[in-house]
Amino acid sequence: MRSVHVIVDGRVQGVGYRYSLRAAARDARVSGWVRNRADGSVEAVLEGPDAAVDEVLAWMTQGPPGARVDRSRVTETEPTGASAFEVRETA
Predict the structure, then answer these.
(1) Catalytic hit among 29, 36, 71, 73
(2) Furthest-apart CA pair in the chain: how many Å?
(3) Which residue of 16, 27, 54, 83 shows the fewest CB atoms closer than 10 Å?
C-alpha cells in the first residue's frame, strides 16, 4: 500500500483536470482526493497498491487534453485507509 501527496503546476485548472483525475483514479482503484488550490495548482492525495498509484501518477504528468503540466511534486505519506476518490472544494 502506497500513499502520496501531489501538487501539480501548469495549466491544470479550467481544463477538467480534477474530474479526469477522479476517473483515472477510480479506473485504477486508487482512493484519495483532488482539489484546486488558490495559486492555480492542483493538489491530490493518492492511496492504493504501488502499481496502481504509479499508474495514476504517470497519468498526472500529462493530464487531460488541454492541460499542460509543468511540474509535479510528489511526497510519500502515511496511508489513511481511504476507500473512495473524491473531488474537494478549492483550498
Answers:
(1) 36
(2) 33
(3) 83
What CATH number is associated with residue 24? Answer: 3.30.70.100
Q: Which residue has the cell 484519495?
A: 32
Judge whether 50 lies within some domain: yes
Q: What is the residue type of 5? A: H
3-class secondary-structure state, position 19: helix
Total of domains in the chain: 1
Is 18 known to be catalytic?
yes
| pLDDT tens, position by position, 49-86 | 999 999 999 999 999 999 999 999 999 999 999 999 99
Output the pTM of the full model: 0.95
Catalytic residue among 2, 18, 26, 71: 18
Domain that holds residue 21: 2-79
| Residue 69: all three cell numbers together | 503540466
